[in-house]
Amino acid sequence: MKPNLKPETNYDAINPILAAEEELIPSSGFLAATMERVRDEAAIPKPIPFPWLRALPGIVLAVAVLGWCGFELARVGLANAREISFTQLHLTAAAGRVLEPAGWVAVALAASMLSWLFARRLAGRSGLL
Amino acid sequence: MHAAISAEEDLADVNRVLAGEVQAFEGIVRRWQGPLVNMAWRYCRDRGRAEEMAQEAFLRAWRGLAGWRRESSFSTWLFALAANVFRSELQRFPAVNVPLEEVAEPAGPATQHEGLARKQSDETVRRAVLALPTRYREPVVLYYFHEMDVAAAARTMGLPEGTVKARLARGRELLRKRFPQLNEQSTPPLSSTLQPTKEVLQ
Q1: Residue of B55, B169, B170 lying closest to A37 (CB–CB)
Q2: Alpha-carbon gap, residue B84 to B198, rounded angstroms
Q3: What would the pLDDT profile of B112-166 be if each residue is shown by its tens digit?
Q4: What is the pLDDT of residue A10?
Q5: What local confidence, expressed as pLDDT, does residue B156 receive?
Q6: How distant is the Cα of B110 from the closest Cα of chain A, in angstroms?
Q7: CB-side exposure of A93: number of CA atoms within 13 Å?
């Protein structure tokens, strides 16, 4: 059923009851207490923003190194993959030697990334960011 | 109530606060403490908590003053912010609302002054608003807070007027079902023996 879109009608008994609310007067200390909290808040130094500009060269460098590592890994991996015959089910010892440390590096990077994201999330929730 | 409050004074105080004059915020609190405490009271019907919630709203307003884009009036921005604060506060700690069935009904007019009995039954209806489902409760609260102005209630909630009207109609319909006597009596005085139905809302 279509709802009644004319709130002014048909509520003659409810309207006077809900509209006739006695007006509360805030307690005498309300203004002072509120301003005290505001002043406390104003006294807290503002959080230092993350220095994106200063961090930018480092970020660019890190991205470049990671990109280069990825490229090298892919290049070496592809070169080794060509040597593996299709009947071979396991990686050759040579490929294993290259890929194992790279795997550990990838795991370490992923763990760092996750902890950074988690820290940012926590900081965001607590209002620090 | 709050229509007469000067927009120029608000604007001047906001500018002074943003320029670093903390004390200028006192003017804002002084002018808006009444409306905000009364608005909070309608959300929780607990005086102490209403003041706490209003104080929290002022603090959030202080923090977010630079975020007021001045497209709408200061009061619209402040009420919308306060409504958000009250809503989230009540989500964290819902208002203690005695079920209607447990509310002591006033005695008959023979044993009690009729005016007092009517006041009590009216208060029962007002408290029943808190028992409405959230989506209907807030439009009802804000519509009557804004002196039956749907547009103002809609602005405070950040919803289209049509949505607010529909929810308002549904909320009041639920109240009328809860108190069938309201259907029979279109004008006050209401019966002092106003009895809520046992039907559970929603």
Answers
A1: B55
A2: 32
A3: 577 777 778 788 888 888 888 889 999 999 999 998 999 999 999 999 999 999 9
A4: 54
A5: 93
A6: 23
A7: 0
CB B172 within 8 A of CB B140: yes
Residues in chain B, how many? 202
Q: Which residues of B touch A20 (CB under 8 A)?
A: 122
Report ipTM for this prediction: 0.75
- Of the candidate CATH numbers 1.10.340.30, 1.10.1740.10, 3.40.190.10, 3.40.50.300, the domain formed by B7-92 belongs to 1.10.1740.10
Q: Residues near B150 by Cβ (< 8 Å), separated by ≥ 6?
A: A7, B143, B161, B164, B165, B168
- Determine which of B16, B21, B44, B59 to mutate to test the interface with A (most A C-beta atoms within 10 Å): B59
Domain locations in chain B as residue ranges: 7-92, 108-184
| DSSP letter for each residue of A66-129 | HHHHHHHHHHHHHHHHHHS-TT--S--HHHHHHHHHHHHHHHHHHHHHHHHHHHHHHHHHTT--
**B108-184 classified as CATH 3.20.20.140:** no
Stated pTM of the model: 0.65
Lowest mean pLDDT among A17-26, A117-126, B108-117, B182-191: B182-191
Per-residue HEC secondary structure of chain B comes to CCCCCCHHHHHHHHHHHHCCCHHHHHHHHHHHHHHHHHHHHHHHCCHHHHHHHHHHHHHHHHHCHHHCCCCCCHHHHHHHHHHHHHHHHHHHCCCCCCCHHHCCCCCCCCCCCHHHHHHHHHHHHHHHHHCCCHHHHHHHHHHHHCCCCHHHHHHHHCCCHHHHHHHHHHHHHHHHHHCCHHHHCCCCCCCCCCCCCCCCCC
Q: What is the mean pLDDT of residues B23-31?
A: 95
Report residue A74 as tokens.
């892919």
Q: Residue A14 pLDDT more than 50?
A: yes
* A18 contacts B125? CB cut-off 8 A: yes
